[in-house]
Structure formats: C-alpha cells, structure tokens
Specification:
The complex is a heterodimer of chains A (about 120) and B (about 110). Chain A is mainly beta and about 120 residues long. Chain A has no helices and eleven strands. Classes of the chains: A mainly beta (about 120), B mainly beta (about 110).
C-alpha cells in the first residue's frame, strides 16, 4: 500500500515568491496535518484538516494557508517567501482527527530552499 | 502550553552499547507520548507510543515507559546497532480531542562499529 506521498521532493525559490506543496494521504485516512521542520529542530505544527475542514492552526503567519480536497489530498501554500521559510515540510495523515492515540503517518517531506 | 525537552546530542555509542535518551514533558491533562525516528533523508517513522501512565511502549528492541510522577518518557535500548543511527524525537499529544503533536528538538544518535 502506498504511504503518504508528497510533491515536489525538493524545490528552490527566491524571496517573495509563492510555493504550493502537495500531499496525498494513505487511502482511507481523512485527516492531513502539516509540519515545518527547520534544520536541526523538531517539527512544528502548521495546520490540521479533517473531513475538509480546518481543525487547527499553529503559530504561523497568514502567509501560510492550506486546504483539503474531496479526495482528502491537501495543499500547503506559502506566499511572500522569506529566507526563514527554508525547511523540510512534512505532511502526515491519520484515520481520525485526534492525534492522541491515533497514530500519524508521515511522508518523506518536501525540502524547500529559499534564496 | 505543552512542551517536550530532550537531552541534547549528538550521542555517539559503540555497537552493542546501552542507549538512554532522556525525555521530559509539560502538558495539561493526560497526554499520549511518542518516540519517532528519522533516518537520513527520510521523514519521521513512529517507533513506539504509550497512551496512559505506566504503559510501556516497545518496538525493535527499544522501550519507553510513561512515568506520570516524573513526567518522563525515556527511550532505552539494551544493545544498539549501526543501523540505529538516526535522529530520535520525543513527542506528545494533548488530552483527548487534541489534534497536534508537540515535538522535542531531537537527539542525533551515531553508532560506530
């Protein structure tokens, strides 16, 4: 079975540009979460979507937005890129919306470099 | 708010040595606790979890016990292998209904032959 798939795997942008990252969850999973992992740090929560509705948002500026489609795939958009947005962006899917005992399965990530 | 503190790395061990990576947490209520592992160039993989006090999670020779009294979830392995070289993250999710994981900063483990 396919795991969580993310695209693109690597991309380079310049400051001020916009980027869209894509995520396909495991079949049957209805929840998708996004995390930002800056080099040398642990992942930081950005968004969670469940059944196409936003369930939570982390402490990120409004330049970050996301959505979930009827097939449960998701996109993360970042506008007006800053050098500090350079990071590995991880998508995770789960069956339900709660992270408690409900295990998140992570994709391999999209590595964004902003020059 | 919720937080996770891990011992700082990097940690370098010889093959077959005993491993302990300390993790303590701050959270309201009764969080679930997790250890994730990240191999070079890959995403995160769940290693083990515990959902209530005194639970022991185990997988691939790794173990961790949920200690509510000390708010800890230390990761241990009796005999590490070169293939265990990776970055290990301790994480928690909040009380029932919580939807996000809070991660520690990670501990890089290198095992040398």
């Amino acid at each position: 079975d396919a795991g969580v798939t993310q695209s693109p795997t690597h991309l380079i942008k310049t400051r001020g540009q916009q980027v869209t990252l894509r995520c396909s969850p495991i079949s049957g999973h209805k929840s998708v979460s996004w995390y930002q992992q800056v080099l040398g740090q642990g992942p930081q929560f950005i968004f969670q979507y469940y059944e196409k509705e936003e369930r939570g948002r982390g402490n990120f500026p409004d330049r970050f937005s996301a959505r979930q489609f009827p097939n449960y795939s998701s996109e993360l958009n970042v506008n007006a890129l800053l050098l500090g947005d350079s990071a590995l962006y991880l998508c995770a899917s789960s069956l339900r919306g709660e992270a408690g005992a409900n295990v998140l399965t992570f994709g391999a990530g999209s590595r964004l470099t902003v020059l | 708010g919720d937080s996770v503190t891990q011992m700082e790395g990097p940690v370098t061990l010889s093959e077959e040595a005993f491993l302990t990576i300390n993790c303590t947490y701050t959270a309201t209520g009764y969080p679930s606790l997790f250890w994730y592992v990240q191999y070079p160039g890959e995403g995160l993989q769940l290693l083990l979890k515990a959902t209530k006090a005194d639970d022991k999670g185990s997988n691939k020779g790794f173990e961790a016990t949920y200690r509510k009294e000390t708010t800890s979830f230390h990761l241990e392995k009796g005999s590490v292998q070169v293939s265990d070289s990776a970055v290990y993250f301790c994480a928690l999710s909040g009380a029932a209904g919580s939807y996000q994981l809070t991660f520690g900063k990670g501990t890089k483990l290198s095992v040398i032959p």
